[in-house]
Every structure is written in C-alpha cells, then in structure tokens.
Amino acid sequence: MADKHVIVEQLVKTYPGSGAPSVDHVDFDLEKGEMLALLGPSGCGKTTILRMVAGLITPTSGRIRLDGRDMAEIPVHKRNMGMVFQSYALFPHMSVAENVAFGLEMRGVPKAERAARVERALDLVKLRGYGERRITQLSGGQQQRCAIARSLVIEPQLLLLDEPLSNLDAKLRDEMREEIRDIQARTGVTAIFVTHDQDEALSMADRLAVMSAGRIEQIGTPRQIFDRPATEFVANFIGAGNFLTGTVVEPHQANVPGLGMVVFGLDAPLGKDVRLLVRPHRFTLNGKGENAFEGVVRHLVYRGDTLTLDVDVKDRTFLVDLPTHAGTLPERGDRVTLTVARDDVTVIGTAA
Ligand code: ATP
User: Could you tell me which residue ranges the ABC transporter domain spans (predicted)?
Assistant: First the structure.
C-alpha cells in the first residue's frame, strides 16, 4: 500500500444539515499512471469525492494521501492537481494561449518558459496554431481540448476530470474518449474521472469504482466489473442482463424454477440460492449441449451490428443480442434454441 500514488482511506462527507453522509467510508487507491473512473447514478457522491481530493471541500473524516503526504496539511493552491470541469470553466475574454498559460502564471513560471510549455500543451491536444484564438471561436470539442491543455500544462501529480465529455455530442464524445485516453497514456499522468456513463467508464478507465448512495459497491477492471459483478446493483447498472434465481443442487448446477437446470463455471455453496447473470450477447442460437433453452422469438430489433431479440422460454423472456454477420437471422415467431456456455453464466457476488 505504501508505494501507491494515491490512497483514499475511510473518506466521509456529511454536508451540514443533511442527515445521511453523501460519501460514506470510501476507500480506493491508484498506481502511478493509472486512470480510475468513479461511476454511478446521479447523487451517489462522485463529484463530492473528486472535490475532496482537489481540496475544494473538506472531508468530514478520513484521509487522502498523495505520494505518501496527507493532503489535509496542504491547501488547495499548493496541491499540484489539474482539474477539468464539465463546463470547461475557461475564461472567455482570454485567448486560448492565455487560458492555457494561466496556471503557469499563477505559479510564477517565467515568460519564455511559459510560452514553450503552452506550445507543447497545445500540440499535445492538437490545438497547435490556435493559441491566438478567442475561446468563443472554438468548437465544443476544441474548448474541451483547451481545458485539458490548461490542466496538463502545470504537469499535475493528479488529473481530475468531472464529467468531461457530457457537453459534447455523441460522435465527438467517442472521439474525445480516445483522445483523452491517448493524452493520458502519453503524459503518464495519474487520473480520476467522474462519469455516470457506463460505456465511457468501461472504455476509458483502467479500473472502475461503481458507486451507490455514497458507497463503493465494487472496484475492478472493466472486465471484472462487467463479467463478475459483485452485487446486483453493479450487474444492473453496467449493461443489460438476464437474471435467474436458482438453488445449487450439484457443484456448478442450479435448479431454476420454471426453467430447469442451469450449469455455471464458478464455485457456489451447495444447497444455497444463487443469483445468476447471463449477458444478452453471450447467448448463441441453435447450439447443442448444456444450457440449451428452447423458445420462441417474440420481438426483434435490428441495430446494425447486432440483432436484439426477446425470446420467450417457458414462463420467462430472455434478452438476446446476436451479431448480424452470422448468416441467416431469425424472424419473429421462429422457434430457436438458446445456448450459453457455463463460463458465460456468472454467479453474482463471486468476486474475480
Ligand atoms: P451528479 O452525477 O448528479 O453530479 P454525484 O454522484 O456527483 O451526482 P454529488 O454531487 O457528489 O453526486 O452529491 C452527492 C449528494 O450530496 C447528493 O445527495 C447531493 O444532493 C448532496 N450534496 C452535494 N453538494 C451538496 C452541498 N453543497 N450541500 C448539501 N448537500 C450536497
């Protein structure tokens, strides 16, 4: 633990006048160069955590350490952190270069060095040649890049991003996801970003902390979170799923009432009830062997790359995503056999 770049321990924030804590005994840490996403629904406490790390608000209790130093002793202007806000918070009356130079000026960096560093930062975010423009003459994506350049030019120990992409349209958001990731990899800066968008978190972060009501439900790699959700909340919040409840009657086998025997790869205690999860794209059609469920296609939606089906199997309906390159596709009313490999049946709560 001691060599971690960032360590957050038992962090609590109870705002004055509110009963329940907004952040409730949160622990996490980051390696140098790592990118962590704080992900969760509105009001779960993500921004409050980020603001405590930045020093903008004071924790009720708990500790934040950066390179071993307790941040409680360090006032906000002495913390070497870069922040990118949802609104960008750029100064509209200043040029792009002046905006980017701002943090350097505050830190008393000499003019010549300032100019060189601003150039480098603008290069990094692909805004070379835009230095003299006014902020109002930039597109949304360019403003976002400018905000990133401004936060990186000070060479922060930690980069904090609060919903950095939510003001951009869908296409630009995809581009900027990759770009932020790329900039982060090239600079090696350690970063925490806040989002309520699961795709964004899965595609950008090295690890995700999924939050609910002030607490962290699970921390893990995108794959661990998606394939091995620790709780029902995480399983529901990240991606679509088919949920089954069964009783473990044999090792790796559960009897699901109204469906039959379901085989799974993970260990679960005999005689106990388990919650099972199958992601829609893990089903295949007309396969043979274990976990074969006959049903009828009730509804389908063509989505380009995937075909989404509702398949009625006995008294339940499975949500199924099929790739559309797979030859003949089923039609409404077709009888199909859904199959799923045992390793694609997850037992919720079985940590990876
Ligand atoms: P969002 O995605 O909507 O920004 P969030 O997960 O970032 O949400 P926070 O902004 O951290 O959530 O808020 C967490 C909780 O704390 C909410 O219930 C919110 O109403 C409350 N809260 C936030 N700021 C204050 C404040 N200054 N005073 C009182 N309560 C606050």
Answer: 6-238
Q: Is 65 in the pocket of ligand 1 (CB under 6 A)?
A: no
Distance 210 CA to ligand 1 centre (A): 16
* Digit-coded pLDDT (tens) for 247-301: 999 999 999 999 999 999 988 889 999 999 999 999 998 677 789 999 999 999 9
Residue 176, Ramachandran bin (φ over 0: left; ψ between -120 and 50: alpha; else beta): alpha
The Cα–Cα gap between 287 and 294 comes to 11
Distance CA 269, CA 343 (A): 17
Long-range contacts made by residues 218-222, C-beta under 8 angstroms, separation at least 24? 219/28, 220/352
Return all residues near 240 (Cβ < 8 A) that are at least 6 apart. 279, 280, 319
Q: What's the pTM?
A: 0.88
**Beta carbon of 79 within 6 Å of any ligand 1 atom:** no
The residue to mutate among 38, 42, 48, having the most atoms of ligand 1 within 8 angstroms of its beta carbon, is 48
Q: What H or E segment, with its residue span, contains residue 249?
A: strand 242-250
- Round to whole Å and give the CA distance between 254 and 307: 29
Q: Cα separation of 54 and 160, whole Å?
A: 8
Please list, residue by residue across 164-177, b when 16 or more beta carbons sit within 10 angstroms of its beta carbon and e when fewer do.
Answer: bbebbeeebbeebb
Name residue 64's amino acid: I
Whole-complex ipTM: 0.96
- Where in the chain are the domains? 6-232, 240-348
CATH of span 6-232: 3.40.50.300
Distance 48 CA to ligand 1 centre (A): 6
Cα separation, 54 vs 72, whole angstroms: 11
Cα–Cα distance between 255 and 259 in angstroms, integer?
A: 8
**Closest Cα to atom 7 of ligand 1:** 47
What residue ranges in 264-345 does DSSP mark as E strands? Answer: 273-278, 284-285, 292-302, 306-313, 316-323, 335-339
| CATH homologous superfamily for the domain 240-348 | Nucleic acid-binding proteins (2.40.50.140)
Q: Which residue has the tokens 């003019």?
A: 111
